Amino acid sequence: MKLPQAIEDAIRRFREKGVPVYIVGGAVRDSLMGITPHDYDLTTPATPEEILAIMAGEKTFREGEKFGTIAVMTAIGPVEITTFRIDGTYTDNRKPDAVTFTADLKEDLARRDFTVNAMAYSPETGLVDPFGGRDDLKNKILRAVGDPARRFSEDALRILRAFRFMGQLNMTLDPALLAAAKNEAYRIESLSAERVADEMNKILLQDAPSRVLYAMEEAGVLEKIFPELVPTVGYDQRNPHHDKTLFDHILCVVDHAPKTLPLRYAALFHDVNKPDTLTIDENGKGHFFGHDTMGAETAGRILARLKSQKALSREVEVLIKEHMKVHDTMTDKALRRQIKRVGEDYILDLYDLMAADMACTYGARDIAFILQRKARIRALMDEGIVNRNTLAVSGRDLIALGMAPGPAMGRLLKEMEDMALDDPETNEKEQLLAYAEKRIAEENAANNNEETTKRRHP
Fold first, then answer.
1. pTM score, whole prediction
2. In angstroms, rounded to a whole number, what is the distance separating the alpha carbons of residues 134 and 146?
3. Where is the CCA-adding enzyme C-terminal domain (predicted)?
4. What does pLDDT average to over the chain?
5. Mean pLDDT, to the nearest integer, of 258-275?
């Protein structure tokens, strides 16, 4: 196992003091899979105070000290060094109330979640694998260390981690582990929104999240996180363009969407409100008028519940609200208006969402026009999309023409902005000022006529 110099240096310090130390958990698992670890955790029989003494001179963090963990800043980032421990009782479904330090590495490994994460390694002793994690990696089976129900009752987040690892490591859940996930799924409701969101984000950013999401739905786990999706399962869309159930279609779109959180969440919720908007025409064909607007609102509520960043929620809502407003043929005028309405930051993502949506409809419609459209949008944005900030005239110019600030000025600026948006060549100061003078004169004449009428007919 090739180690970064920073880890070798830390191990050397323990070796010089005659204290055993092991790499543990994900770094060992990833190395066995031929994956370069992105972080390293160490474990040792040394107490936190002894760890601090061994790592003297290095920047350390003691926030996890009561659980036996000292974090040490190294050249590759912070590395957690934890004393061998036995976890006490769990009363919050998340962390042990207390821990007991031990000198037995196997006792420490026995408290961990899955066999593939319960392996340790040191250059002196090699691999320590008391629960068969290496064989489970080879056989692609995710098993709990000991009783899976107990593992989940200790820390409910392990239920979501099981499904995440299932997809991340391309494994199958051990039948006992799957059964325990079903029975213990209710515990997910005790988890913080941030913890749930972190795991769901990792699941959605996998290459093909559908495999994991199907398994979560079957186990009754998905409904604990996104109950809004339950009505889509097995739902017949009654539409010749859709040969899949609604849930199948949604997960297909998720898989086809590019791997970014806004697009994956938009794909997951883009049709969530179809069951609420179904109408049947005289030919028996299903329609879902308004599901895009309702879906945007639903997605906003879900992401707020997960305490997601506002920027993520904002883009997801825009993408869902606009996903039915992409047409096969659109003029430059229509495209400029769409770009302004959707936003230059989101417009290309909208077309990526549409491409994924189209790939999952009956017959997989040709999306060549999407690629051409994106190229045209880029060209239009390079030319510049007119907005209030780039309009050649401003409120100050209208005041100079004698117009008072107020609603009428706002309407005139909007009128000129729309005019320049539709035809960028009109965004020229002299031309717009001439137009503004004409409109101000018309407005004044209309106001004078109204005042004269009032005087004649008080």
1. 0.87
2. 16
3. 296-436
4. 93
5. 98
How many Cβ atoms sit within 10 Å of the Cβ of residue 164? Answer: 21
Mean pLDDT of 187-196: 96
Grade residue 355 by pLDDT with cuts at 50, 70 and 90.
very high
What's the rounded mean pLDDT across residues 31-42? 94
Tokens of 85: 């421990």
All residues at 6 or more sequence positions from 81 whose CB lies less than 8 Å from its CB, including other chains = 10, 21, 41, 42, 43, 44, 51, 55, 69, 70, 71, 72
Tell me the pLDDT tens digit for each residue of 108-125. 999 999 999 999 999 999
120 Cβ contact list (under 8 Å, min separation 6): 22, 23, 24, 28, 43, 105, 109, 127, 128
In whole angstroms, give the CA distance from residue 27 to residue 449.
Answer: 82
Q: What is the pLDDT of residue 456?
A: 60
Q: Walk me through the domains of the chain, giving residue ranges and CATH numbers.
A: 1-136 (3.30.460.10), 395-456 (no CATH)
Q: 60, 16, 23, 62: which is closest to 42 by C-alpha?
A: 23
